[in-house]
Amino acid sequence: MAYYLGIDGGGSKTTCAVGNEFSLLATFHGGPSNITRVGELRAREALQQTIRGACAAAQIAPRQVRRACIGVAGAGREQVAETIRKITAEIIPGEIEVVGDMQIAMQAAFGAGPGVIVIAGTGSIAYGRNERGATARAGGWGFAISDEGSAHWIGRTAVSTLLRAIDQAREGGEESDESAAQARPLFGSLKSVWKLSSFAEFVRTANDNPDFAALFPAIVARAEGGDTFAQSVLRQAGRELAQLAGIIVRQIFPDDSASLTHIALAMVGGVFQHSQQVRDIFGYEVRKLDPRLMPNPQIVEPVAGALQMAREAHSSRLK
Length: 319
Fold this sequence. Notes:
Elements: E1 3-9, E2 14-19, E3 24-30, H1 35-58, E4 65-72, H2 78-89, E5 95-100, H3 101-110, E6 115-120, E7 124-129, E8 135-138, H4 151-169, H5 174-193, H6 199-206, H7 216-224, H8 228-252, E9 263-268, H9 270-274, H10 276-289, E10 293-300, H11 302-318
Parallel strand pairs: 1-4, 4-5, 6-9, 9-10
Antiparallel strand pairs: 1-2, 2-3, 6-7, 7-8
């Protein structure tokens, strides 16, 4: 029996799926393995623990894996891909392929067919392929300068929005009092996530390259409770993600393609999974940009694409 392994290595978690030629045997979740965000040491620990956990759940040994496909952000940089490959090869003797996270997501969403995916997890990126096989990407240039609509972006934007509100509250007057009252609950939630006790600590932490993505669950919770600041940030995230999809459509799905009546669109990642508001705004905005875009309400699990790519690559070598 041949066994295959697929991995989705993200900035917040790593998911590993083990299967044979016909079925999924086990799935296991571990810590983050995005080398750019967490470094090689933590990435090695997360990848190897997740692989061992998935194999144990499938009742096989890692040495029995014939081929693995690993999807990670930044795989286009050879140093990143080679480091991930070496880490995995320490426990898996079989063939190992490292590809971009958008490639495994495309496989999971559309197989070899056309469509557009927008990934919004710790980071964000959009990717598409048309019926002729032409591809395009947008965003995903790193959390410091891009990744619009991602969990990191949402956390950072919420902090900057709050600080602006606090500045305005210091102006005095009735409007200032209202602004301060509106900002206070979200500020308390975010301060609690970072385990801080004062405003000064909050500002210092925000300027010290913190984990902004860790704030995302608290922002969603506040938005669901009616917090207007949190809701405004999530609405903006939905619009930013829709803009990424629009860029892809304009590049590879021209308006003069009379035969194309709809364009399949898939959502990927924890931001879409955990925020109904982001999903709703995203869906509304993409239809405004191009009525041909047809969002699938089901959130795609990229690890399924990684496992299928491992199977298919091995099968093609046997032909």
